[in-house]
Amino acid sequence: MKKIIVLFFVFVTLVQTSLAQTKLLTMEEAVVKQRTTLAPSKLKQLMWVKNTNTYSFVDTRNSEEVLVIGKAENAKLTDAVTLIQFNSSLTKASLEEVKSFPVMTWENEKQFSFINKKQYVAFNIDSKTIKILRTDDFGDGSENKDIASKTNYLAYTIKNNLFVFDGKNNLIVTNDADENIVNGQSVHRDEFGISKGTYWAPNGDLLAFYRMDQTMVTDYPIIDWTTRPAKNNNIKYPMAGDKSHEVTVGIYNVSNGKTVFLKTGEPKEQYLTNIAWSADEQHLYIAVLNRDQNDMKLNSYSTITGYFEKTVFEEKQDKYVHPMHPMVFLPNNSNQFIWQSERDGYNHLYLYNTDETLVKQLTKGNWIVTDFAGFDSKGTKAFYASTTESGITRNFYSVEIKSGKTVRLTKGDGTHTTLF
To answer: Which stretches of 117-178 are assigned E, i.e. beta strand?
Structure first.
């Protein structure tokens, strides 16, 4: 059985007890030092190196940053590159030096990528060389960039429209002249777990995106007091009882340039949340929630025609239904998925079949699942964090899909942050 390795770190604020017992903090100390001498100790940019049991983080030694690499099998740490060496490589490549390591993404065990100004760049830790992968010059107004992992296609927005860069050309996905129609951006005021507006399919050739029509929503004045004189900025805000915005979901095909909009039906004033692709990309799943927020249907739509296919299940509550997480399919089983729900008063994991049947509730108790981490390679176990012991603790668990048996994996009290 393939070994599952998880990094466990306990972040604890270390304050000298004797000092705390004899001296009260001043207001200045409490505010100014909360990010310096009174800050919790932590590992900066802790991450796994892609497809390995090696991890990396950025350490600071003698006021200089160092990229450190370690292996899960032992406690040995190796310095990969210092910030001085990194900046020297940037200079040789005619790129701008940095004051600290940029946000990195490991491409393989020898190379990580990052963004330097408008260029997408790779760094080799052995040769200490720089390679420019792509220049992302889409203008100063480009935002909401989203990269497809397999194809490296890049979705981005300019003002209220959506575009895709396929490596050679900037493709126009939407071209709405009315600024009150917004494409490719977060909708529903970031409720129900929504944090972005684009969703790449697994193979990276299809892009699902939100289209929000706010033309029917009244303006709400916001005063900007930072200018002199003060300035009024109107935003679209649906007051209770008034017309709300109308959201639809489109699917853009990069290969043929065509877009299909899903027929999500009436009423148009509804929430479309928790978007998820099927593994074969033939279906898109959406949690459709009514405006009263007490009736949710997990619906399946055809990505080819856009037509509604079926309701996998429906959840109703007297007060409200609160879907926050998209479905997650089991590895090697595209017919079963994990769903998170608060239907019994606490957020827990439920196992479903796509044929509209509930298999079982995987976790249960007067505590909440705070994070679902994933599965083992065979899909026999799921991993999650929860408040099982106490509302102020976080521990990491595994649960067997077949038997429902749970095992606590972290030791000791406190909050454990895991990187699975």
So the answer is: 119-124, 129-135, 142-147, 154-158, 161-165, 170-172
Q: Contact at 8 Å (CB) between 159 and 141?
A: yes
- Mean pLDDT across the chain: 92
Q: Is 289 helix (H, G, I), strand (E, B) or coil?
A: strand
The CA-atom distances, in angstroms, between 211 and each of 196, 272, 366 are: 12, 11, 39
**Residue type for 66, please?**
V
Instruction: Please spell the DSSP secondary structure of 307-333, one letter per residue.
Output: -EEEEEEEEE-SS-----S--EEETTE
Whether the bond between 102 and the residue before it is cis, its omega within 30 degrees of 0, is no
Average pLDDT rounded to a whole number, residues 11-27: 56
Continuous segment of H or E residues that includes residue 22: helix 17-22
Q: Cite the DSSP H helix spans in 204-286.
A: none
Q: Is the CA virtual torsion 374, 330, 270, 262 positive or negative?
A: positive
pLDDT at 11: 41
Per-residue pLDDT at 341 exceeds 60: yes
Determine how β-strand 348-353 pairs with β-strand 416-419: unpaired
Question: In terms of Cα–Cα distance, which of 162, 152, 158, 153 is closest to 138?
Answer: 158
Which secondary-structure segment (H or E) carries 332?
none
Residue 196's Cβ-side half-sphere holds a number of Cα atoms within 13 Å equal to 16
Residues 203-220: what's their mean pLDDT?
A: 96
**pLDDT for 271-315, tens place per residue?**
999 999 999 999 999 999 999 999 999 999 999 999 999 999 999
Instruction: Give 185's contacts (C-beta < 8 A, 6+ positions apart).
Output: 144, 157, 160, 196, 197, 210, 212
Work out the angle at residue 323's Cα, subtended by the Cα atoms of residues 164 and 285, and round it to the nearest 5 degrees: 50
CB 385 within 8 A of CB 395: yes
At residue 166's C-alpha, the angle toward residues 162 and 167, to 5°, is 130
In which order are the strands placed within the sheet that holds 44-48? 44-48, 54-61, 64-71, 77-82
Counted residue by residue, the chain has a size of 420
